[in-house]
UniProtKB/TrEMBL annotation:
GO terms for cellular component: centriole; cytoplasm; deuterosome. It is found in: Cytoplasm. GO terms for biological process: centriole replication; de novo centriole assembly involved in multi-ciliated epithelial cell differentiation. The keyword Lipid biosynthesis does not apply. This is DEUP1 protein. It comes from the Eukaryota. Residues 92-126 form a coiled coil. The keyword Kinase does not apply.
Length: 169
């Protein structure tokens, strides 16, 4: 997008340079027109001059036609320059809007990431607590299992004693 802006700026600069050149040529043509008019006036007063009034009038008409063409070209260049400036302005506005949208999106994503990090930290803390509770419950169950096994062993011992005593009776 920067390249497009650069190209558009170069095009604007080129058109501005052409515009200045056309203006300079118009000024030169105006000066020449004044000189021709002065020359024409001098010719009317002096008979030594070789060009006739008709030739001067034709030259004047030619110069006037050139001036008109240059003026039309100048107007066309102004319109083109205006179109290019408007296009560059619209592109810059579009670029700014896109940048703002991206900034907002990045900000939203950053906030979402922060919330997820907080959630993960909370879950990890709860998982640690649950793990400790599980270990405590496992230890308690292990103790109860050992106690149960002892009771089963004592039960079997007493049962075998009872069986032995019943056999003796």
């Amino acid at each position: 997008m920067e390249v497009a802006f650069s190209e558009m700026r170069n095009e604007l600069q080129s058109r501005d340079a052409l515009w200045r050149k056309i203006q300079l040529e118009c000024q030169q043509l105006h000066a020449e027109l004044l000189k021709i008019r002065e020359y024409k006036d001098m010719q009317e007063t002096q008979t030594k001059h070789q060009l006739s009034y008709a030739q001067l009038t034709e030259q004047l008409e030619n110069r006037t036609a050139e001036l008109l063409l240059l003026a039309q070209s100048e107007e066309h260049q102004r319109e083109e320059l205006k179109k290019i400036r408007n296009h560059v302005y619209q592109e810059e506005q579009s670029h700014r809007s896109e940048q703002e949208r991206m900034k907002t999106e990045i900000s939203d994503l950053t906030e979402e990431l922060h919330q997820k990090e907080i959630t993960i930290a909370t879950i990890m803390e709860k998982a640690g607590l649950l793990e400790r509770q599980l270990k405590m419950e496992l230890e308690l169950k292990d103790k109860l299992l050992v106690k149960q096994q002892m009771l089963d062993f004592q039960y079997k011992v007493i049962k075998s004693e009872n069986t032995h005593l019943k056999g003796m009776l």
